[in-house]
Amino acid sequence: MTLKLVLPKGRINTKVLKLLSDCGIDLIGDERNYRPKVYGFDLEVKLLKSQNIPSLVEIGQHDIGFAGLDWIKERRSEVVVLKDLGFDPVKIVTCIPETWDFNEMKSRKLIVASEYKNVATDYLNNLGIDYQLLRSYGATEVFPPEDADMIIDNTSTGTTIRANRLKIVDVVMESSTQFVANAKALEDPKKRQEIEDLLTLMQAVMNGRDRVLLEMNCGTDQINSIVDLLPAMRYPTVSPLYQDKGFAVKAAIQKSEIRNLIPKLIEAGATDILETPIRKAL
């Protein structure tokens, strides 16, 4: 069963391609090729702008795809979000010139520029202010103060906003890359199984990225203290050493815990400690 997968061009493409590659799915083609060949999974792939992906997945032109939550909301697309990958997080923010007062501005009619027509409209209506919305097509931050009083735009670091002498006064929403599916595709048992298999591979890779395999030896008297320190996925694996000279212990550990954990293990009597990357973990 061939699945039709649509991938984003541009900013979020790099991390998605790396994820697929780590799943054993390789795409062959240069940057001008919108229909790359695929090896490692039965997929028919096309590359499009992220803005177009949610609508095309919704109407069934593609079975699955990757898109930012911001464009899913902007297109009001009824797709099934299978997983928030957390790639390329951004915030959709409200910005005004850095010397202006936001509360004072709310009392008059405002000109607002945004690439997000629907997201901006919902936000401004909830805010209850009088406004005129201008649809921008990139470089939204250059509109104020001459051509707009306010902008609603995405940012990851705020650097471009500050460089244009603007300040953030509100956060409209947060967005990151989502793995999405067409609802009808999930109703097809064969397609659903293929989609779930792909999702399992992706989850295994992402679990592996968060963890390392920690292996060590310890004496018989230290084993309980060592095991108590290890926050494994379930339970550590414990095996007797040759000639019953102690135990070998291994566990999958969150990378964030390693720095503080290793000194405690050494103090508890662990020796011959090895740390190994994990490619996949389930």
UniProtKB/TrEMBL annotation:
One of its GO terms (cellular component) is cytoplasm. Signal peptide: none annotated. GO terms for biological process: L-histidine biosynthetic process. It is an enzyme of class 2 (transferase). It is found in: Cytoplasm. GO terms for molecular function: ATP binding; ATP phosphoribosyltransferase activity; magnesium ion binding. Pathway: Amino-acid biosynthesis; L-histidine biosynthesis; L-histidine from 5-phospho-alpha-D-ribose 1-diphosphate: step 1/9. The keyword Nucleotide-binding applies. Residues 49-203 form the ATP phosphoribosyltransferase catalytic domain. Keywords: Amino-acid biosynthesis, ATP-binding, Cytoplasm, Glycosyltransferase, Histidine biosynthesis, Magnesium, Metal-binding, Nucleotide-binding, Transferase. Catalyzes the condensation of ATP and 5-phosphoribose 1-diphosphate to form N'-(5'-phosphoribosyl)-ATP (PR-ATP). Has a crucial role in the pathway because the rate of histidine biosynthesis seems to be controlled primarily by regulation of HisG enzymatic activity. This is ATP phosphoribosyltransferase. It comes from Aliikangiella marina.
